[in-house]
Amino acid sequence: MKSLLKVGLVVLALSIVSCGKIGQKTEVKEKFHDSEWSYEGETSPEHWAELEKNSDCLGNRQSPINILDINAIEDDDKESIIDIHYSPVTILKKVRNNGHSVQFDFDKGDSIVYNKINYNLVQIHFHEPSEHTINGVRYPIEIHLVHQSKEKYYTVLSVFGVEGEKSEAIEEMESFLPLKKGQEREINKEFDLSRIFPENKTYYSYGGSLTTPPCSETVQWVIFKDPIVISLEEVLKLKDNMPLENYRNEQPINDRIVYLHKL
Ligand SMILES: [Zn+2]
Fold first, then answer.
1. Greater model confidence, 190 or 76
2. What are the structural domain ranges in the chain?
3. Are 262 and 80 a contacting pair, CB within 8 Å?
4. Which of 5, 7, 49, 105 satisfies CB 3.0 to 4.6 Å to 57 for a cystine?
5. CATH no. for 29-261
6. What pLDDT digit, counting tens, does each position of 74-85 carry?
7. How far is the CA of 29 from the centre of ligand 1 (A)?
8. pTM, whole model, 2 decimals?
């Protein structure tokens, strides 16, 4: 019994030493604060409302949705057009694998004005395949650019990715990967995120929710109609750093209207 305990202590000591070494070499920090929800089994999206008792996950303004072009109402009110103010010197602070997605955190600098309210970019993360669908079509990648107002309301810009030529912006972000679940890496470098948008910025908009618990119904969604092109290798690298199929399924649209803003 004693010798077993000794072996155990030696193994523990060795693992602490080796963790320390890995940490120094790659500047990767370990964090373990993930909540219970996931994308599979007993903690999959169908169970989120039971897992998070005070969430909005059973609400009637949930996201994502399937957008049908035929039902989208064209909005030509110039005042409501989104204004994107992204700077090439905004600091990309760090990247983390939070167990649900790969998330890049940004310092203050990039912002948008939407319906006369200012929202600051906080973080961007990825879903593979996409959460929103357009006319039933699911894209290989959906990028969520999460912006928050002073009053803690969200506007999330959504960019789809299709496979083709490689994207420089995605390539640069992926240079900070791989990360295992719970790991993060400090970056603190200037990053020009304006490269992530499609050339034509025609977009759909609707009122919805966060697509992860607590599914708060405080999100204005802005979904670019045109996808950007990223390479298959880039898709696969993102996929390797996230849970398999990290998307929530389609939610009922109920009485909501989807607008189309042609630009
Ligand atoms: Zn998301």
1. 190
2. 29-261
3. no
4. 49
5. 3.10.200.10
6. 998 888 899 999
7. 23
8. 0.87
